[in-house]
Amino acid sequence: AMEKSYTSLFLLLVAISCALAKDAGKKETKETTAKPKLPQTLSRGWGDQLIWTQTYEEALFRAKHSNKPLMIIHHLDDCPHSQALKKVFAEHKDIQKLAEKFILLNLVYETTDKNLSPDGQYVPRILFIDPSLTVRADITGRYSNRLYAYEPSDISLLYSNMQKALKLMKTEL
Question: Across the beta sheet with 103-107, what order do the strands follow?
Fold first, then answer.
């Protein structure tokens, strides 16, 4: 009789621990599915649902091999102009949708590639590079002294420049 009660107790404990483990598993999956797929650090707030590359080299490789244009956003976390543009960019539904057709990179540091600062190192500046890895110096904003600068009020120009980058790619490559 003693053996039987130990067995029942043992089985009861197994059943309880299984049930608890199942519940713990459920909680974990609920939390993990709610989180974005990529760490927030790569988007830096420019579009958390978009896929961002980590480095300039990775972005060039992906652009070349996926045959998509690359869009590079140079910005700084403590720059009010960068912050203002980021907010408008992230909230602009059409831009976010169009951005899915690009390889995306946002940089908070300067690269050693001088092609990425054709007219100086200022932020925010946005450059497009086609899959042949040519910097599209012909796709510019509206400022003659900072050709690749965009302000929040220039968001529709940025949108049309994104469309232009995609169109040029199709006609020229």
Answer: 103-107, 70-74, 125-129
Long-range contacts of 78-82 (CB under 8 A, 24+ apart): 79/123, 79/124, 81/123, 81/124, 81/151, 82/123, 82/124
Give 37's contacts (C-beta < 8 A, 6+ positions apart). Answer: none
Q: Is residue 97 part of a domain?
A: yes
Distant-in-sequence, close-in-space partners of 24: CB < 8 Å, separation ≥ 6: none
Tens-place pLDDT, residues 131-150: 999 999 999 999 999 999 99
Find the domain containing 120 and state its range.
Answer: 56-143
pLDDT of residue 41: 72
Over the chain, what is the mean pLDDT? 85
Any domain includes 91: yes
First to last CA, the chain: 84
